[in-house]
Amino acid sequence: MNIFRFLGDLSHLASIFILIHKIQTTRSCRGISFKTQAVYVAVFVTRYLDLFTTFVSVYNTSMKIFFIASSCYILYLMKVRFRPTNDPSIDTFRVEYLVGPCAVLALIFNYGYSVTEVLWSLSIFLESVAILPQLFMLQRTGEAETITTHYLAALGAYRALYIPNWIYRYFSEGYVDPISVTAGLVQTGLYLDFFYVYFTKVLQGQKFELPA
Amino acid sequence: DLDSGIHDEL
Questions:
Q1: Residues paired with residue A143 on neighbouring β-strands, in sequence order
Q2: What residues of chain A, 170 to 199, have a C-beta less than 8 Å from chain B?
Q3: Residues 113 through 172 of chain A touching chain B, CB cutoff 8 Å
Q4: Are the C-beta atoms of residues A73 and A44 closer than 8 Å to each other?
Q5: Nearest CA to CA, how far is B6 from chain A (Å)?
Q6: In whole numbers, what is the pLDDT of chain A averaged over residues?
Q7: ipTM above 0.90, yes or no
Q8: Confidence check: pLDDT of A2 > 60
Q9: Which residues contact A32 (CB under 8 A, 6 or more apart)?
Q10: Span A173-178, mean pLDDT?
Q11: Is the pLDDT of residue A35 over 70?
Q12: Quick one: average pLDDT of A58-73?
């Protein structure tokens, strides 16, 4: 564990708390893509299958449980508790276009041909593009509530912070995980446009609005 | 490397 990874994980935790806070205080999941949130459940469940077989640390296990539980809770908030505020008609990104290619990639690139390793690989590839339905929705509506942009910024910062973590681990432990690094770079890259608007507008006190 | 198959990152 190093400071970059720890801050990345904290940022990931923060993003989830921000999202839950947004939904509960506004009593609405407007502006949140259900598809993105559903993909996150799939990401956590497929990645943390080792929860019962591999023990890394109490930290690791608790975080895994938290990520699975909180992502399921968010789906519950969206589909049951605040269902009327969820508008599927603007959440139109075709998720099957993400899952298919990721499944093929996972079958080609993995660290071993076992069910758990291929699913782990799938979860890494899927996570890298999971935000696309959300960004697509943002693009389509052209604006976002400020709290939603804080959620996205924290989520983007999480993967961005993993990059210095991998550089650090390469030099300190000789550790390299090419699948995570490649997917992580792609994932961070997807946020660049968003970050630009976030830093130049939202953090200057303006509303998040995309040029028409 | 990852020969051990243990993924210690989240």
A1: A209
A2: 175-177, 180
A3: 114, 117, 120, 162, 165
A4: no
A5: 7
A6: 96
A7: no
A8: yes
A9: A19, A22, A23, A78, A86, A134, A148
A10: 94
A11: yes
A12: 98
Give the DSSP per-residue string, A57-120: -HHHHHHHHHHHHHHHHHHHIIIIITGGG--GGG----THHHHHHHHHHHHHS-SSSSHHHHHH
Closest CB from B1, B2, B7 relative to A50: B7
Q: Of A116, A97, A123, nearest to A43 (Cα)?
A: A123
Residue-wise pLDDT tens digits, A136-165: 999 999 999 999 999 999 999 999 999 999
Q: Which of B2, B7, B8 to mutate to test the interface with A (most CBs of A within 10 A)?
A: B7
Q: Running DSSP on this structure, what letter comes out for residue A48?
A: G
A-B C-beta contacts closer than 8 Å: 30
> Is A111's CB within 8 Å of B5's CB?
yes
Helices A192-200 & A178-190, crossing angle to 10 degrees? Answer: 40
- State the pLDDT at residue B5: 62
